[in-house]
Amino acid sequence: MKKIVNGLMLIAMFVLELLPNSLVLYFSSEDQNGNIILKPTYTSYFDMLPCGYADFLPLIIGIFTGVCIIMLIYSFFKPNKKVEGLVCYFEIAIVIMTLVRVILGMGMTWMGYVIMALALLSSIMYIFDEKQLVNK
After folding, report:
1. Which of 64, 69, 106, 115 has its Cα between 20 and 30 A from that of 82?
2. What is the pLDDT of residues 65-104, one digit of tens each?
3. pLDDT tens track for 6-61
4. Distance in angstroms (rounded) separating the CA atoms of residues 32 and 28
C-alpha cells in the first residue's frame, strides 16, 4: 500500500513538473520612464531556459523525480529495502533543493510548493515505516 501511495505522489510530482507553467523566471525590462519592471516567464522544470540562466536545480529536481519513479517500479517487481531507502534519500534531496530555491528567492509557483510538499510527505512516510520496522 505504501508503495502505491508513494508511486501516485511521484507521478503527481512528475506531471506537475512537466506542466508549462510549473516554474517562473523573472526578467527585468525598462519602461519608457526608466522604471524597472519584472516580467514573469513561466516554464517547465525540464525546459532549458532556466539552465541558460544558471538555475540547474529545476532540471535536477525533475531528473531525481524520474529516477525515483524508475526505482519504485523496480522495487514493485523485485522488493528491495535498499532501493526504497534510495528513493527516500532522493525525495529528501528534492525537498532540500526546493527549499534552496525558496531561500534564495527564486521564482516559485504554487506547483513548486506542492511538489515540495509531496516529496516531504513521501519521505516522511518512508522514515516512519522504517522506524516501525526497527521497533518491531
Report:
1. 115
2. 999 999 999 988 998 888 888 988 999 999 999 999 889 8
3. 889 999 999 999 999 989 988 888 888 889 998 899 999 999 998 888 889 999 99
4. 13
Which residues, listed in sequence order, are joined to residue 27 by a DSSP beta bridge? 39
Cell 523573472: give the residue: 26
Dihedral (Cα; 101, 106, 111, 114), 10-degree rounding: 30
Instruction: Report the residue count for the chain.
Output: 136
Amino acid identity for residue 102 in this structure: V
Helix pair 81-103, 57-77: axis angle to 10 deg: 160
How far apart (Å, rounded) are the C-alpha atoms in residues 77 and 86? Answer: 16
